[in-house]
Amino acid sequence: MFDEINLNNILFLDIETVPVAKDFSELDPAFQKLWEEKTAFQRKEEKPAQYFSKKAGVMAEFAKIVCISVGYIYRKDDKPTFRLKSFYGHNEKTLLQEFNDLLDENFKSKNHYLCAHNGKEFDYPFLCRRMLINGVKLPKILQIAGKKPWEIKHLDTMELWKFGDYKHYTSIKLLAALFNIPTPKDDIDGSQVSNVYWKENDLERIKTYCQKDTLTVAQLFLKYKGENLLTEAQIEVA
């Protein structure tokens, strides 16, 4: 399928999410109870507050998106160039609407695709849920209800690596190492995003990390297609 997809029709993306509250005690009491009920089986003997700090950031009902980084490949001076852009901030509805506008204006044809790592399990459903919660209309490319599998234009670099193995999970960090894809060594990782947001209030640092992962997704897809990696000179940041 790699040969059938035009690289210029793909929007690569990554999202960063954090719990909706700094800690469990600041969560609305009604949602504290709902959290206890939802996580009763998963957390077992662990206290709700402890589990909230560890897992709330990946559950769309108890988390919010603070950054969406996107990138696409286009030709510049007859060479492929990767253009990066981020939507980020404290107002989740605003950044979701800006992302929605980009999709509706530029990625709405049947030939367009989205691509993320573990996107089908995390990024795409998380985006849809948070859009509905914020009253943002789903863009066409995220409306998958009733569609046949081949009509859904969602690519996932982790799923593509599985080759039919349903049990296999591989991190983007491991795949980047396997394919010799250069990544910054002095950045944060996903487990630190919540602290960087709630304790350090450093959205710029989160944006940098999100853009790094978006670029890595694109580089990984290029490797899958047997293409050359993008060089630093071929990367633009909007």
Could you describe the 3D structure shown?
This protein has a single domain (2-20, 62-237), classed as 2-Layer Sandwich (Nucleotidyltransferase, domain 5). 38% of the residues lie in helices and 18% in strands. It is built from 8 helices and 6 strands; from the N terminus they run βααββαβαβααααβ. Strand 4 (113-116), helix 4 (123-133) and strand 5 form a beta-alpha-beta unit. The protein starts with 9 loop residues before the first strand and ends with a strand.
Supply database-style keywords.
238 residues; alpha/beta; six-stranded mixed β-sheet; 6 strands; 18% strand; globular
Blueprint of the fold:
Elements: E1 10-19, H1 29-43, H2 48-55, E2 63-76, E3 79-88, H3 92-106, E4 113-116, H4 123-133, E5 154-156, H5 157-162, H6 172-178, H7 193-198, H8 203-224, E6 235-237
Parallel strand pairs: 1-4, 3-6, 4-5
Antiparallel strand pairs: 1-2, 2-3
Using DSSP, what is the number of strands? Answer: 6
Estimate nothing, just give the exact number of structural domains. Answer: 1
Count up the helices. Answer: 8
**Name of the CATH superfamily:** Ribonuclease H-like superfamily/Ribonuclease H
Report the portion of residues in β strands.
15-25%
Q: CATH fold name, please?
A: Nucleotidyltransferase, domain 5
